[in-house]
Design a protein that fits this description.
The chain is an all-alpha fold. The chain contains 5 helices and no strands. The protein has one domain.
């Protein structure tokens, strides 16, 4: 699977975890179209044949079991492709100075205490 440019922008701005979340959300939304159509058909069967005699309820349940397995396997493949296509993370910035070295040293005048 090829990474889309919008996902690359999200990855650069928010990081890898957020980009993977949006990739998962997009794949899940596309996959939900199949159970949606069959669910409408099943609910129409309840209106036509009644609650006790719906012919689509059992096939719909079996379909959802298979659909969830196919979705999870598809997400595993998509996730692996996206992680493999991602550029390697940049190394963390190294700090060459201690923070105390960056602060200017203040020399305070000595104030004589009352004698």
């Amino acid at each position: 699977m090829k990474s889309c440019p919008q996902l690359d922008h999200v990855r650069r701005y928010f990081g890898e975890h957020v980009a993977l979340y949006f990739a998962w959300l997009g794949l899940y939304t596309r996959f939900l179209a199949y159970p949606m159509f069959l669910g409408v058909l099943t609910m129409t069967g309840y209106d036509i044949w009644g609650d006790d005699n719906n012919r689509f309820a059992l096939p719909y349940s079996c379909f959802l079991s298979l659909w969830s397995t196919v979705f999870l396997e598809s997400w595993t493949r998509t996730e692996n492709d996206l992680v493999r296509a991602a550029p390697p993370p940049s190394p963390p910035l190294s700090v060459h100075h201690n923070r105390l070295d960056l602060l200017p040293t203040l020399s305070l005048p000595e104030i004589p205490l009352g004698e």
